[in-house]
Amino acid sequence: MLPEREKRIFGPSAIALCKGAGRDMLIDRRFVLVGGTLALIAAAQPQDAAVSAELDEAAKLPPAERLARLRRIDRRELDTSIALDVAAALRGAELEVAIAGAADLQARYALQLRLQSGTEATPAEAYAFALDRARLITARAARLLRDEGLVDGSVAERLRRLARDPRYFYSDDDAGRDRAVADMNRWLDAARARLPQQFGMIPRAVDRVTVRRMSPADEAAGKAGYRVIPGYDGSTPGAYFVDLHDIGRRPSWTLPSVVHHETLPGHLLQLPLQDRAAPHPLRLRSAAGFVEGWAIYAEQLAAEAGAYAQDRRAEIGYLQWLLFRLGRAMMDVGINVFGWTDAAALAFLRDLQGDPVIFAPFEKDIARARTEPGAYAAHALNWLGFEQLVARRRSGDARRVHDRLLAYGAAPLVLLAPLLAH
């Protein structure tokens, strides 16, 4: 039985709907069923040009016509990357056709979730996976907050008090912003040094990555943080430009996990590898949750490598970021399947994570969950899917699995799974 507080936060009716959704179903029930789909994925002789041209033409067509054209492509003797392009484009077109013909909103959402996530998870499974992890993270955060002297109230209430504690604020001037960026670059240097623990093939791009301040004009305008992707070979630099215009909402303990998500081993490791692999836009369209899911998984990789072993508050920040991701996922399902009102979704997010993060007001996220159903849940499913794919290969070297997950660029996880079996 859930404690009353958790029942209030997570919703007993939603929990009841998720009964029977096991923790390993993302892989064990479905991922292994797609091996036949990519039977030709390791064929020896690439015939890239003609197939790429067919994909380009298919991309101009509406879903039903695109599907018919894709089905005519000869998939024999394709190299791995092009085979992934075709298989992903086929899967995406099939789902788009099915979405257009869905009988009701819940059936449509289930299909949208499959398309966005690149998995075969149901909405109830997505909620169950997120709920299970959120409960574990909440329990860990409660212990760390207690060690910080924050013992009264829910975890969300204690996170809110910690976030408003002026001891952890940077000064609201150039010196404070420069100090925040310097701190983030120190975390980045440590993250770069840990990469060989978890990756075997590390592009030179990682040596050209920094965290940087925005221009004064961008800061004054409140521009959101953004990335410049480095060249795979290190020939051009990359950076994450952090948004510090409202620096009072960026306490020091929240920034380390941002480094791992946005730079290494997150976006600025994955995206240069993806640029080199050059997946077709139709493949990227059918794997929308991959890139963000990897960056969340990268936050976890940093923690597993010992990033927070000596910094309890930074670990609290990491856990709050994960609650933010999980809250978005559960809210996505809650609104589109369980019938949550905006008010109910707002109360849920507040009760789970405390204050909203600087770039994602709760109301904005709720609105997006209605206009882009499945997107937030897809991020979490990719994060947890990466974890499951690596866990099933733990008898070998996890570095090799990470390398293969990133080698081809974004792809539906159901299609990547067979590649890891070789």
Outline the structure in words.
The chain has 422 residues and is mainly alpha-helical. A three-stranded mixed sheet has the order 1-3-2. The relative contact order is 0.15. The N terminus is likely disordered.
Descriptive key words:
3-stranded mixed beta sheet, disordered N terminus, 21 helices
Q: Identify the overall geometry.
A: globular
Return Rg in Å: 22 Å
Low-confidence stretches: 1-6, 13-23, 27-46
Pattern of helices and strands: HHHHHHHHHHEHEEHHHHHHHHHH
Helical fraction equals: 55-70%
- What is the count of helical runs? 21
User: What's the total count of β strands?
Assistant: 3
The major beta sheet can be summarized as: 3 strands, mixed
Task: For the record, give the distance between the C-alpha atoms at the N and C termini, rounded to a whole number.
Answer: 42 Å
Look at the structure and give the mean pLDDT.
91
Structural class based on helices, strands and sheet pairing: mainly alpha
The main sheet orders its strands as: 1-3-2
Approximately how much beta-strand content do the residues carry?
Answer: under 5%
What's the helix and strand layout?
Elements: H1 4-10, H2 12-17, H3 25-30, H4 48-59, H5 63-71, H6 80-100, H7 105-117, H8 123-147, H9 155-163, H10 174-198, E1 209-213, H11 216-221, E2 226-228, E3 238-242, H12 255-262, H13 267-277, H14 281-285, H15 290-304, H16 312-336, H17 342-353, H18 362-371, H19 375-391, H20 398-407, H21 413-416
